[in-house]
Amino acid sequence: METTVSVGILTNESITFVLSQGYTLNNQSANGEWTAVIHKNHIEWNGRLYDELFFVPKDSNSSFGIKDVVIGINFHWERKENQQFQGALKLIVDEGKIVAINILSVEDYLISVISSEMSATASLELLKAHAVISRSWLLAQIEKNKEIVSSKATYATFSETEDELIRWYDREDHTLFDVCADDHCQRYQGITRASANLEMVKQAVNETRGEVLLSEGKICDARFSKCCGGMVEEFQYCWEDKQFPYLAKLRDIAGKYEMPDLRIESEAVKWIQSRPNAFCNTTDKKILGQVLNNYDQETTDFYRWEVRYTQKELSELAFKRSGIDFGMIEELIPVARGTSGRLTKLKIVGTKKTLTIGKELEIRRTLSTSHLYSSAFVVRKEGDTFILNGAGWGHGVGLCQIGAAVMGEQGYSYDKILLHYYVGATIKHAY
Predict the structure, then answer these.
(1) Residue 18 φ then ψ, to 5°
(2) How many CA atoms lie within 13 A of 159 on its CB side?
(3) How far apart are CA 414 and CA 352, in angstroms?
(4) Confidence of residue 120 (pLDDT cuts 50, 70, 90)
(5) Rounded mean pLDDT of 81-89?
(6) CA atoms within 13 Å, Cβ hemisphere of 150
(7) Phi, psi dihedrals of residue 193, rounded to the nearest 5°
(8) Coil, helix or strand for 99?
(9) Could you give the CA distance from residue 259 to residue 275 in angstroms, rounded to a whole number?
(10) What is the rounded distance in angstroms from the CA atom of residue 134 to the CA atom of residue 140?
(11) Within 10 A of 137 (CB to CB), how many other CB atoms are there?
(12) Distance (Å, rounded) from C-alpha 112 to C-alpha 118?
């Protein structure tokens, strides 16, 4: 039986929203534009104070808008935009701010996610593959959260000593709703991006309705990223130290191939400094346009890329991003890598402090004004300049969106695309 999902849209001290003709609050019509503000840890709305507000749609044609939603949080293209949503709107209070939550069916959620993640030119097979992995990931997260809550276990996402800080970021950060609306979970922008590909997205979702990836009797935690860089990463190198058989080490090509051990530094250097053949090694703008929305295409180099910092720039950046005063950074030393060559531990040597940091996203956040494209990079110094040469965009685990787009163009069906990236998994109906 299809379930519902709650999505965190925006957290702020005031939220302006617009209800279409078709919403009720406590069985009373509630339409038009409104602003709710925080007041003494309550929601002040329409002249009264509330602990929460729950606006219910009358039918499937009802929709609501939220103004100034922040998208691309901490990324180079972060911005605000007005967004439109279907389903119910719930406002609650959390730590002195109002949280706007959208509650809707899983299948309607998927239509929006795929419209948000994919551009209007995406092929049907790519869209169908994405429908299955987005559905699988979502249902796996909801089930995982239930298990964590029922077990009452302490779920830690970092470890820290005087010499080492290891932190990872996962959707367990969210306790008030199932998933957030930004890239931290799955990019969800309501019906805002329902454009030329809407009918094809609906077709992809409907034709795969209820389908999920299964492994060992459980729904797969089907991760995905923009570009693996030619080698797919394993789950445990990016998040908790847990192995999933379907999120395995994998070359992003067809047929038989050599599999270098990129955990070995010399092998990683050779790999990153070359451009090996891979599905995702493409500069075809038609194919890239299937995956990259307009603001994603503000970046064109991601299979292999280069970033340069002066010693002063790098030192100031690391201090600003981490809050740790390393002094002048003298060296960046690779300590450990995953199977895709992504750094999982990096030693930062400064005149005031030396610290090893990880996992991959912590490294990317510390060494960029937003996020480095990935942590699969090698470092060299020329004078007082640090040069980072890297591979891929994102964590690299699971499906590679650009690689999958190439596979779709080459005639692979959606199930073949899925079973390429999720090793040994099967496709079944959850409902």
Answers:
(1) -125, 120
(2) 9
(3) 52
(4) low
(5) 93
(6) 6
(7) -100, 15
(8) strand
(9) 15
(10) 10
(11) 25
(12) 10
**Angle 377-404-113 from CA coordinates, rounded to 5°:** 95
* CA pair distance 338, 247, nearest whole angstrom: 13
pLDDT tens-place string over residues 26-57: 999 999 999 999 999 999 999 999 999 999 99
Q: 302 and 288 in contact (C-beta within 8 Å)?
A: no
- Region of 376 please: left (phi>0), alpha (psi -120 to 50) or beta: beta
Please give the distance of CA 277 from its chain centroid, rounded to a whole number.
Answer: 26
Q: Which residues of 313-333 are buried (b: 16+ CB within 10 A; e: fewer)?
A: ebbebbbebbeeebeebeebe
Beta bridge partners of 65: 18, 84
Which element (helix H / strand E) includes 143?
A: helix 124-151
106 closest CA partner among 71, 66, 140, 58: 140
d(CA 20, CA 13): 23
Q: Quick one: tokens of 354? A: 């030396």
Q: Which residues contact 418 (CB under 8 A, 6 or more apart)?
A: 129, 132, 133, 213, 399, 425, 427
The dihedrals phi and psi of 35, each to the nearest 5 degrees, come to -125, 125
* Start-to-end Cα distance in the chain: 5
Q: What is the pTM of this model?
A: 0.87
Indicate the DSSP class of residue 398.
Answer: S
Instruction: Name the phi and psi angles at 19, rounded to 5.
Output: -100, 130
The tally of CA atoms less than 13 A away on the side-chain side of residue 100 is 28
Number of H helices and E strands in the chain, helices first, is 9, 28
Q: Is the peptide bond before 359 cis (omega within 30 degrees of 0)?
A: yes
